Amino acid sequence: MRIIGIDPGIAIVGFGIIDKKGSKLTPVQYGSIQTEAHTDIALRLKQVYDATIQLIDKYKPDAMGIEKLFFNRNVTTAFTVAQARGVLMLAAEQKGLKIAEYTPLQVKQSTVGYGKAEKKQVQEMVKMLLHLKEVPKPDDVADALAVAICYAHSSHLQMKMNEVWRND
Hints:
Helix content is 52%, strand content 22%. It has 168 residues and is α/β, with parallel strands linked by helices. The chain has a single domain, classed as 2-Layer Sandwich (Nucleotidyltransferase, domain 5). 36% of the residues are buried.
């Protein structure tokens, strides 16, 4: 199974693509989609959408994991990021990907084993689990890989639960 993990944003969208075979996770590609500040929001959203379509067409993931929004301060930023998140999900839906949304707590729990883990702990676990030489930068990229890892771990649990239900 090939999974694209997304850390949504408008200035920087982190993405991480991994392959899952059994319990083995292998990084395929990771990086960021960046848009210029002081550019019309509609154009920035189109750039995020177009870049996401290109990634999906090139790497052909089966599924997308995307982080749910959690904002407690800047409402304007939350709205803009929510719009970017919408175009990201639209791109995945149009390309037929399964989509799962995860809270930051779920991502941390799945990656580190502790839902209140520090950002640095998550980054180090991403590096370790994917056998990377260094923590991916910017932080949004490591976060996106963590979301992909969360999807991989969650899909494994879901398959196990489905097996149990079928055998009952």
